[in-house]
Amino acid sequence: MIEIPTLPSARLVLRKPMEKDAIDQLELFRDPEVMRFHGEEPYQSLQEVKDEINAFVELAETEEGMIWMIILKETDQCIGDIGFFKWDKANFRCEIGFKLKRDCWGKGLMSEAVTTILDFLFNELNLNRVEGLVDPNNLPSQKLLRRLGFQMEGVLRDYEFEKGRFGDLQMNSLLKREWNK
């Protein structure tokens, strides 16, 4: 098992998931706008969120990735989650994903969280490539990744089956040499 480190930034603390996060995360997972591009229907129960938090912990236990809770320093409130998965150690790459409560959108918080994770992935785990697969209609996530230097490589047609249909995903990537410029 890999220990999930605590990663501080100016306004945030990224820390390992805990059961106490379930109440805050329920608000996040219940919001149809937040879940719109995440391939799942909004959650309805606290138990679903607790199961998801357990899955976050298992990701580190199986060394397939890590998920952090995004904690706002000012209030100590859990406002989202961020992490990496599909960790391919042999090829020095992974995929990232993130969610943020709607009332925190547009404040630069996710940019701060993603920057913190990218520093960790490139400089601590020594990865060479980080991928972000984004729904082609998810313009805010596309803009965030572009701002941080990700390049759009193309569209993966009918890449995922979600909510009863096949959907495209846009492949974006950032290389270590581009990040460390």
Automatic annotation (TrEMBL):
<dbReference type="InterPro" id="IPR051531">
    <property type="entry name" value="N-acetyltransferase"/>
</dbReference>
<feature type="domain" description="N-acetyltransferase">
    <location>
        <begin position="12"/>
        <end position="176"/>
    </location>
</feature>
<dbReference type="InterPro" id="IPR016181">
    <property type="entry name" value="Acyl_CoA_acyltransferase"/>
</dbReference>
<dbReference type="Pfam" id="PF13302">
    <property type="entry name" value="Acetyltransf_3"/>
</dbReference>
<dbReference type="InterPro" id="IPR000182">
    <property type="entry name" value="GNAT_dom"/>
</dbReference>
<protein>
    <recommendedName>
        <fullName>N-acetyltransferase domain-containing protein</fullName>
    </recommendedName>
</protein>
